[in-house]
Fold this sequence. Notes:
The protein contains 4 helices and 12 strands, in the order E-E-H-E-E-E-E-H-E-E-H-E-E-E-E-H. By secondary structure, it is α/β, with parallel strands linked by helices. The protein has 2 domains: 8-77, no CATH class; 122-240, Chitobiase, domain 2 (2-Layer Sandwich), CATH 3.30.379. The strands form 3 sheets. Strands 7-11-12-10-8-9 form a 6-stranded mixed sheet. Strand 1 (8-21) and strand 2 form a beta hairpin. The longest helix has 36 residues, at 43-78. The mean pLDDT is 82.
Amino acid sequence: MANKKKSKVTKKKVCETFEITDGKKEEIKDFCGEESVEENASPKEKKNQNKILFGVLAICATIIILILVFVFVTNSMKEFDVKGVSYTIVQEGNLVLYQTKFPMIYQGKSAIYNIYFRTDPRKLEKNVAFDGNIDLKQNVVINTKADIYCDADGVIALANLAKLNDIFGVSIIKDENASCDSEDRYTYVEIISGNETKINQVGNTCYELVVNNCEILPATEKFMSEVFAQYWADKKAETSN
Length: 241
């Protein structure tokens, strides 16, 4: 009886290239493995080898899909909208910030201005009451009748309000002799103490930022979030006209 001729087995390196993206940057990944190839293999053996190769590639493709789904879900959780304003969660060490962006002209060129909140804008919408509308004039008077310097939060709050000048070009003024203007020539903002952190509209262009228990950041950031919401609403209205 003649001896059956054995097939010679060799190892063949097989690679597949996949493109992975998280929506911001693209990365090329190579997945490689070894395939056993029998020289002089029968058609049945070659068919089995192809099934094994297909299975390996299918597993790799599944892994890629799972990675893409994970990246998409993670990014979706970091981005959200509140009243037409887009925010992104940014981690700075142990500090969680909420970033929003505005187009501006800087030194004659288009640029992007970034604003960072310490309070989640979704919580501001839920926890800091405001029933009114924002009318931001070219001149904005900001007076304080409350002790707002709680663990330096007051410094951050006033610095953030001053950024309205950088974004919208308005003039921020402190004038203790000023009050709500019946002729609406300027926007008047007064920071006062109260039993509940909220914003009261007391005139067409006049607002009280009521601060309870040193919640100066939620009060001022709520005001700014309303300014931003009004800005984008006006832009949308201009585009649709």
